[in-house]
Amino acid sequence: MTVAIVDYGSGNLRSAAKALERASAEAGLRQDIVVTASAEAVAAAERIVLPGVGAFGDCRRGLDALPGMVEALNEAVVAKGRPFLGICVGMQLMARVGREHGDHPGLDWIPGEVVALRPRDPALKIPHMGWNDLRIGAQGHPVLADLGAHPHVYFVHGYELRPDDPGQVLAEVDYGGPVVAAVGRANMIGTQFHPEKSQAAGLRLLQNFLRWYP
Question: Degrees (nearest 5) of the Cα angle 136, 140, 141?
């Protein structure tokens, strides 16, 4: 079984790959973790991970620059229902539109928009950076299972995804008010936080993803 991490020039993909390799090994799973810029490799993978750091528009342009990649993602994730995990800006790209330095189209898998964080407390710094307790929604989700009562996870972001459908919000964090921390529907899940940097809770989440059959 192959897990494809999409390499579109955004961020340090090695940390995500190492975390997934560790999660697979400790769970006793035989999965090949591949970092790839090939649309063909992504189309053939059993699971797909889309990381991302930086500005929304830059990340979208990076995806568009890879021949056939957006089409491969839509075919594998939307048409064929392969399990998908978006991380940070990779989660934000699931939205319809990102409004960072202008409006930029997303993949439109989670109807909604990506907007600037506006905490009610003006003393809170932007970007939101550091460790915070995750509040998992009452509906639960297999990928967010068994993370502990108050899982501590790591964030670095100045924008947030606001889904049109509140039912697609899987978890929140308090940062001067509720901020969306995880979204999902069907075979797709995205986390605003970085599981690869979130120690025990992040490792458990990645193991859950690798075992997940939507």
Answer: 110
Indicate if the pLDDT at residue 10 is higher than 90.
Answer: no
By the 8 A CB rule, do 60 and 86 touch?
Answer: no
- Tokens read off for 137: 């929604």
Task: Return all residues near 108 (Cβ < 8 A) that are at least 6 apart.
Answer: 95, 96
Two tokens at 55? 């500005």
Q: What is the pTM of this model?
A: 0.97
Fold of 2-211: Rossmann fold (3.40.50)
Q: Is 74 exposed, middle or buried (0-12, 13-18, 19+ CB in 10 A)?
A: middle
Please identify which of the residues 104, 128, 157, 194 carries the catalytic annotation.
194
Domain spans, the chain: 2-211
Check 46, 75, 88, 152 and give the catalytic one. 88
194 is catalytic: yes
